[in-house]
Amino acid sequence: MLDFVDRPQAYPPKRPAEARTRDFHEIAAPFTPEEGAAQAARCSQCGVPYCAVHCPLHNHIPDWLRLAAEGRLREAYELSNATSTMPEICGRICPQDRLCEGNCVIEFSGHGAVTIGAVEKFITDSAWDQGWVAPLAPGPASGRSIGIIGAGPAGLTAAEYLRAAGHEVHVYDRHDRAGGLLTYGIPGFKLEKPVVTRRLDRLAASGIVFHLGFEVGRDAELAALRARHDALLIATGVYRAKPLGVPGADSAVAALDYLIASNRADFGAPLPEAFDAAGKRVVVIGGGDTAMDCVRTAVRQGAASVRCLYRRDRANMPGSQREVAHAEEEGVEFLWLSAPSAVEPGQVRARAMRLGDPDASGRRRPEPGAAGDCALDADLVIAALGFDPEDLPLAFGAAELRVTRWGTIIVAPATMMTSLPGVFAAGDIVRGASLVVWAIRDGREVATKMNAWLAAQAPLERAA
Q1: What is the chain's percent helix, strand, coil content, to nearest 5?
Q2: For residue 406, is pLDDT > 90?
Q3: Alpha-carbon torsion 434, 440, 445, 451, what sign?
Q4: Which of 11, 59, 303, 444 lies 20 to 30 Å from 167, alpha-carbon distance?
Q5: Is the CB of residue 302 less than 8 Å from the CB of residue 267?
Q6: CA geometry: angle at 67 spanning 65 and 68, to 5°?
Q7: Separation CA 382–CA 308 (nearest Å)
Q8: Mean pLDDT for all residues in the chain
Q9: What is the greatest pairwise CA distance in the chain?
Q10: Triad 64, 68, 69: Cα angle to 5°
């Protein structure tokens, strides 16, 4: 260990941009065992591991880095798996530059952070290859039935822990495949779908029942599911696009609709012309990770040009700086301090912005600059400004389900239970649009709360 002085930071080698933009495969090769051990050995094993502190899951990062450096990969996997249900997925898609790696002690010393995400991916991919990922073993049958609405990372994580506790678990999702954003929201060049599928297969093999193409409110109201199960978990995420709020905004395509259509095409479905960027001049509006997914998808679809408008500067964008760098390598043009003022046929009118005083969050507020508008040619405009919750009380036929003024579900902090007895909620539908790793954390915590609540209840009579 402590090799960070003599051994430079290294990430897995990326395919050349010209080659990787021709397909939707992941852009980087995996570490070899020698490379993985060498990079893990750069860890300083510091007394206060800020990497673990700033990981939402509080993964035992220095410990499994040490095991990987010593070649004890199976032990490293077991330790990594102890706190995360999807370590190889987090290793691929977490913004490590804002979390663990961004708070690595040796990063502060100028030697470059340990490449934690790449090592995490390497450890668990190796575990799958070697057959170390054990089937999910249900605990002794509890006689309890749990319904989970939403097959995204929060719902899947809770399902795994609840099944391990011996409960019967049913997962309901409106899509034809489970996985939520892991399946349909994140492009393959960041997360190839077989990586998700093998996790889903493991859950199904344990006896978890997936009801796909099932929409609560259409196929059954919330009350019917409450009667069917001893407890429910709402983990739907947030899917409604934030509005652009400019003239002509209705002609823009919502980012998630665009990404879902592209991912469906990756599974073999036809790509609707409205979501096909081939030969088109594309303008994406937004600066988060979803916007980065959109610009890089458009490049792979064969767009004539791809531009990204963001109202703040590069230093203040919410998305991963690594994703921005990848996009730039792939030919995306960024227009910083620019915001749309109108979407018109064949063009977007963009207004120059400047950064004013900080707002309540501490970030400097963008405001119109002195320069006037300019026109950008655009055949396809994609709005990627983030997501709001859908109106779940209305959609679920459950007016008594309490929500905040933003539409997120209100839960009791100590129990994670909603205003409806026996109905819990977790993930983005509670905290608002956030990261996959936070959804996993919430799924882990709500499973613990649900187990405690169930243990205190007398058996309930359920509808057949």
Answers
A1: 35, 20, 45
A2: yes
A3: positive
A4: 59
A5: no
A6: 65
A7: 9
A8: 95
A9: 68
A10: 115
- For residues 160-170, give the mean pLDDT: 98
- Model confidence at 108: pLDDT above 70: yes
pLDDT above 70 (res 1)? no
Q: How far is CA 100 from CA 8, 273, 398, 424, 437, in A?
A: 18, 40, 40, 29, 12
Identity of residue 238: V
**pTM (2 decimals)?**
0.94
What is 46-89 written as a DSSP string?
-SS-HHHHTSTT---HHHHHHHHHTT-HHHHHHHHHTT-S-HHH
Q: Which of 434, 436, 428 is nearest to 86 (CA)?
A: 436
Pair 258, 273: CB distance under 8 Å: no
User: What residue has token string 């169930």?
Assistant: 454
- The share of the chain scoring above pLDDT 90, in percent, equals 91
Query: Which pLDDT tens digit goes with each residue over 87-105?
Result: 999 999 999 999 999 999 9
CB-based contact 87:134 (threshold 8 Å): no
Is residue 337 within 8 Å of residue 353, measured between CB atoms?
Answer: yes
